[in-house]
Amino acid sequence: MSGASLGARYTQDMAQPAPEQRNDFALAGIESVEDIKARWVDSFYFGSEADDRTVAHAFNTRANPLGVKINAIYSSDVGHWDVPDLTEALAESRDLVDEGVISEADFKALVFENPYQLYTEANPDFFKGTAVERKLAGS
After folding, report:
1. How crowded is the C-beta side of 12, counted as CA atoms within 13 Å?
2. Which residue of 13, 20, 93, 139 is surrounded by the most CB atoms within 10 Å?
3. What DSSP assignment string belongs to 56-94?
4. How far apart, in whole angstroms, are the C-alpha atoms of residue 109 and residue 134?
5. Coil, strand or helix: which one is 136?
6. Nearest CA to 76 among 109, 52, 102?
7. Does an H or E element contain 46, and which?
8. pLDDT tens-digit map of 3-48
């Protein structure tokens, strides 16, 4: 196994990867922190349980690099034995606003804007013919 750099034969004398091979970001074309944001913040969504107070971190523009808000979306255990009613779990998540953990605007992003964006970016007609489309047309 001449030239192998891992396993029982590994030593400091073995051939090491070239600098361009050690750059984990090179193949992704990442050259700046803004590039990381474009690939990870703008492209991903993260579920948050109804009563999870740590969701406040997603909306903390003072602490998050570049002042970003993370695409947090409301999640629940609806359908599980302990959450038989969607409205109760959603009402529980509203406590985050009432307790000052997140703002009204952040709550709207959590339960509507971010999930809406998630579904319609991939398929602009996702809500076509639904109550969501009718509600938005009336507002």
Report:
1. 0
2. 93
3. GGGG-TTTSGGG----EEE---BTBTT---HHHHHHHHH
4. 19
5. helix
6. 52
7. strand 46-48
8. 545 555 666 677 777 877 778 777 788 889 999 899 889 989 999 9
